[in-house]
Design brief:
The chain is mainly alpha-helical. The protein contains 11 helices and no strands.
Length: 284
């Protein structure tokens, strides 16, 4: 397989998995065992492609939130998840997004200072996929019971915002956990019973979080001189592939969750994790 084709496949994998609750980091770490290890700059860039796709999807929502935060207009028109807000609600929502991001930023820096590094072995990723799949099934069961008791609730509380911020850090520490999966289900269990509302908040808080993480890592890459050794053609192809596939993936997911639970993703995680534990020797 040529390096260009491998780069294309890695970009597609990143785009598909970044915002689905199946763990993009876990999939990339596994895929690189067969497609070849890539530089930190490459992995950062394809993640940025996926972020760009979500910004494009939510561009009007983000603008409306900013305008509502300033009290200049209501948000009755633009919501990919179908949840309009007025200016007061937008201001409150923006503060909660900022709080969730702030919690993630502070805890993320603490984790970074402690010298945490992602594992290179497949086994811990496989276990994270399996256990995450089981947890999703259990969490969705209790979330459904909570929804039946409380009714459809799209409100993001301060508790939900703080817990989502913590969940993002936990997902970053354990590859295979899935940032989107962790944040969505924390929101559902903490009282936001609407799948659409929980998913939208998880996606929106992921934008500044992932942009900040990308910028932080990019500074390290540039300072170390790794950028001078990058194959920019492969990187460009992977970036575009990631952006396009992420755009399609997120659009599809927003429609899917309107009438479906997340059970199919949980089953996929369990099957993939179990297959990896069976097929890949421990410690390799």
């Amino acid at each position: 397989m040529t390096d260009l084709l491998a780069a294309l496949l890695l970009g597609i994998i990143e785009g598909i998995t970044e915002f689905l609750p199946i763990s993009s980091t876990g999939h990339l770490l596994i895929a690189e065992r067969w497609l070849g290890h890539r530089s930190d700059l490459f992995n950062i860039s394809i993640q940025a492609g996926a972020i760009l796709a979500v910004v494009l999807i939510y561009r009007q929502r983000l603008w409306d939130l900013a305008m509502g935060f300033l009290g200049r207009r209501a948000l009755a028109e633009h919501s990919p998840a179908g949840m309009p807000m007025d200016a007061a609600q937008a201001r409150d929502y923006a503060f909660k997004l900022a709080a969730a991001f702030g919690v993630t930023a502070v805890l993320g820096l603490v984790v970074k200072k402690l010298g945490f590094e992602l594992p290179e072995q497949v086994t811990p990723i496989a276990w994270a996929l399996v256990l995450g799949g089981l947890w999703m099934i259990v969490a969705e069961h209790f979330a459904a019971k909570r929804a039946a008791a409380l009714g459809e609730r799209a409100t993001i509380t301060w508790t939900v915002a703080i817990l989502v911020g913590i969940a993002q850090v936990v997902a970053g520490v354990f590859p295979g956990t899935s940032r989107s999966g962790a944040t969505i289900f924390v929101a559902l269990l903490a009282g936001t019973t609407s799948r659409a509302a929980a998913t939208e908040f998880a996606f929106l808080v992921g934008i500044p979080t992932m942009f900040a993480a990308t910028a932080y890592e990019l500074i390290d890459v540039v300072r170390s001189g790794q950028a001078g050794h990058e194959d920019w053609g492969d990187l460009g192809v992977a970036f575009v592939a990631s952006a396009i596939t992420a755009f399609i993936s997120v659009k599809w997911l927003l429609r899917y969750i309107q009438s479906h639970r997340f059970t199919a993703f949980a089953i996929y995680r369990f099957v993939l994790g179990a297959a990896l534990l069976y097929l890949v020797p421990a410690g390799s």
